[in-house]
Amino acid sequence: MTGHARLVYDPDLTAYDFGPHHPLAPIRVRLTVALATELGLVDTTSSTSPASPGGGSGAEANGRVLQVPAPSATDELLALVHDPAYLEAVKRAGEHPEWADAEFGLGSSDNPTFAGMHEAAAHVAGASVEAARIVWSGEAQHAVNVAGGLHHAMPASASGFCVYNDPAVAIRWLLDAGCPRVAYLDLDVHHGDGVQEIFWDDPRVLTISVHESPRTLFPYVSGYPTEIGGPNAEGFAVNLALPAGTGDAGWLRAFHAVVPHLLEAFEPTVLVSQHGCDSHRADPLAHLALSVDGQRAAALAVHDLAHRMCEGRWVATGGGGYALVEVVPRTWSHLLAIAGGRPLSPGTPTPPGWRDLVARECHRPAPTAMTDGEDPTYADWDTGYDPADELDRAVRATRQAVFPCHGLDPHL
């Protein structure tokens, strides 16, 4: 594993804040960076000079992720994806937080307006574009924006806690910079509908979303396996919709039955991934049943795919996750450890200093170890298809819908 990685972060990213009663609480990002730093995974020494391809900074040599500042996206960058009228509406909402406009999805319970909304959302988008720039320029093989992953935002409306679609802006930037093919892999429990919509008819982008079935979860109207892309890109939108209650073994079985085959056929130049950890069994907003150990296994698999398919070029973002103390900081710290080339043993204790921070800030006990005590093993697809199993039927539906578009046999 390589240690050439960056964390694009500064504390002002937590200004993306819908208020004290909203599920998307920015403290989850702050607790993540605090935990990763206490664990020795992050080097906060500022660096302005790019690492040499064969060398890297001292942080990289030690398997630590180098923290670098997060710039804000300009209007020109945001307009790669978002309509100018929508940008003006977001600015107006940030200047007059009492204002609401249903046409643009602003002012709803999911997307309440707040002062400085445009600036905060542009900062998150800028961090993801910077991560993409770092990887595409060769400054580092891996770059992570844990504050990003706002995958529901549409070109002309906010949706699902998301104002600007930072993964889509980063992908569009990569394409405009000359990247031939980008694979977008969305592991959030919710369908990555905004990114799918934006690249629906673009065969340069393969979008794969692994999520809870929209029969039981937001956004309800999209994320079905029959959604396979526009007329110029049939098979380039992939939806793996898993039944409620799916745990580590089923999730990993489904992932490995679909994702590696499609990436191998697509031959991406860069892999962009979204690591929403609301698939955890403790998450209050969804119904999958993964553990931190299963989510760690997923991140390891994505890292491996980036090296197998893209020569290590990997841009990773955060995403959903509403078990703010129990899940998000541990799962995303594992992600950072993997990106830095130094995966943590699942049984690693959480540092006492971080537990004290949780007690002070959240007034509840913190997890004492980086594991839920689960063994995330799974039965590979080649062990056989069970037509009586709801998970296997979901996997088969996705394979049948898109594998033939890529010259793959869905029955193998």
Automatic annotation (TrEMBL):
Where is the Histone deacetylase domain positioned along the sequence?
65-337
Q: From the UniProt record, give one GO term of the biological process aspect.
A: epigenetic regulation of gene expression
Keyword terms, alphabetized: Acetoin catabolism
Instruction: Supply the Pfam families for this chain.
Output: Hist_deacetyl
Segments crossing the lipid bilayer: none
Q: Which CDD domains match?
A: HDAC_AcuC_like
User: What metabolic or biological pathway is this protein involved in?
Assistant: Ketone degradation; acetoin degradation
Specify where the region named Disordered lies, as residue ranges: 44-63
One MF term in GO for this entry? Answer: histone deacetylase activity
Give the UniProt family note: Belongs to the histone deacetylase family.
Write the protein's name.
Answer: Acetoin utilization protein AcuC
